[in-house]
Amino acid sequence: MQLQTDSYRNATEIEIMEEVLPFEDADVLELGCGRARWTRTIAENFPVKSVTATEVDKVQHEKNVQINDLPKVQFVYGGAEDIHLDDDSVDIVIMLKSLHHVPVPLMGRALEEIHRVLRPGGLAYISEPVYAGQFNEILRLFNDEKEVRQAAFDTVKEAVSRGDFALKDEIFFQSKSEFGTFAEFEDRILFPSHSDHSIDETLHDQVRLAFEPHLGPDGASFINPHRVDLLQKI
């Protein structure tokens, strides 16, 4: 296993998931669903049986439970280290840029819980951002994730090394993130309800000045590298 590579394929997250995950009649667990963007995409575009979508941010979870047009989806409040599902009850577990948000001392427990709830042979799709790229250079001004991303990678390696999972595939891809305005960047990244980055006026100006050169008539876009570890329960 490797943390990053020199070669990334161009793809979207949903294209990678469609390629490697057997969604047909599957019970899916998404850990850390955020604003339920990918939850909706999975529930509406793939022939899944059910989706359980968890979120540890209570403010966002309360917004998610107001969604009433996704009959296959159940929204649950809670973290990956304490999954309120039965043993051997899901076919697929998905973590999209969420493992590194689990407190480092609890990351190992999160992988144990994923192993517990997966049916034998079930798959865990763990997608993490690679610590590189122009967007990362802006992000690290107020939220340097180098250490927690490394910890997330090490946790996955340990779970494979001890024989809980087989590494079925490791995929490196790059995709585009877009922001229409700096205000949108503030809402989605700088001041999310799940985190307090303690941004004072000086730091706010520094981030804005780093962001603005990327703005054009159609907003700002960034090419971001990602790594997917596709694990199979043994």
Automatic annotation (TrEMBL):
Pfam family, any one: Methyltransf_25
GO biological process, one term: methylation
Keyword Methyltransferase in annotation: yes
Record-linked InterPro entries: Methyltransf_25, SAM-dependent_MTases_sf
SUPFAM superfamilies: S-adenosyl-L-methionine-dependent methyltransferases (SSF53335)
Domain Methyltransferase, first and last residues per copy: 28-122
Entry protein name: Class I SAM-dependent methyltransferase
Organism: Thiolapillus brandeum
Lineage: Bacteria, Pseudomonadati, Pseudomonadota, Gammaproteobacteria, Chromatiales
